[in-house]
Amino acid sequence: MPNLSGKHIVLGVTGSIAAYKAASLIRLLVKAGAEVQVVMTAAAKEFITPLTLSTLSGRPVLCDFFDHSDGTWHSHVELGLWADLFIVAPATASTMAKMAYGIADNLLVTCYLATRGRVYIAPAMDLDMYRHPSTIASAARLREMGATILEAEEGELASHLIGKGRLPEPEEIVRRIEEDMDKATTLTGKQLLITSGPTYERIDPVRFIGNYSSGRMGKALAEQAIRMGAEVTLVTGPAQVLPTPHERLRVIRVESADEMLEACRSVTSYQIAIFCAAVADYKVAHPEEQKVKRESRPSMTIELVPNPDIAALMGKEKDKEQIHIGFALETHLDLEQVRDKMERKSFDLIVANTLEDEGAGFGTDTNRVTLLSRDGSIERSLPLMDKEQVALEILNTLPQLS
Length: 402
Hints:
By secondary structure, the chain is of the alpha/beta class. The protein has 14 helices and 21 strands. The longest helix has 14 residues, at 170-183. The protein is elongated.
């Protein structure tokens, strides 16, 4: 596991009683060889003094946009460019909401908006605040924008209630970040092909047959793979969400299953393919050239014919060095049927889930999946977790499949 030697870290400290833990966190980061610049909110100074954190970091703590004694400007742009890592610990509900929606009314949030490095957010608050829909929405939005949320821990809180909301201990925060950074290089040099979203099969120029896939899982896979060093080609149907643009991301937008197959076959060089798209099983045999008007056709019968099975066709064409991963979304999970699908489509790993599980399936931020490998070395059911974490769990199996 790599250390943090030479890394530039901006540590944001906000107005939580857990702010006292920032002192230990700075000590550990400096001990690991990092350079730490602390940025505090005004509320944070009520819980721990800037002098304490400045002494430990060896740098003046920044709280305001400029120094009130001499007018020196504290450039959030320079800080954003300097930072390899931007860590907010502890993060209050207020700060998370401001970061999620770009409310740049303090130095900490403006630094975050200017940051190009990796972002880690460690929430700390009372259990009811932590599980409030607004806080959950802020966390989900921050994840979508690429931040890593270091989940709060269970325990006794400042209110003396017992529940989730405690800031992880500084040693645990550093361990999680170092572990994440260690994984961030495991796909360096690898080329990934990922399919995502639904396909739309035209009835006429304004109507189509489709499904409820949002593209969230494909987005999560693409972004996690890029964080781990991969070059990604994403072939996506008309998804609701797309990954954040990146120099190692190529997006090919398609509409129908036929177009998706053609796009996949155009990607001639890849080591790993993940078939995450919800491809329509059928298409309209004879799409209309003009919009069908209800007045001229009181009733309508549509003939459907099978679409090409993209994963199966690509599986027949893959070479022995390529790894293929597929998904199986069922209304009822039958592992024997899932294994049969894995064989038919030449998947090395299959990710199975069911619509029976609350919080899983289309249009959700979470998923509950079972991972099965073709050689039998992997058979693991995961708990309900956000799709970014599911994506990481899937990608972390790749060394076992090589």
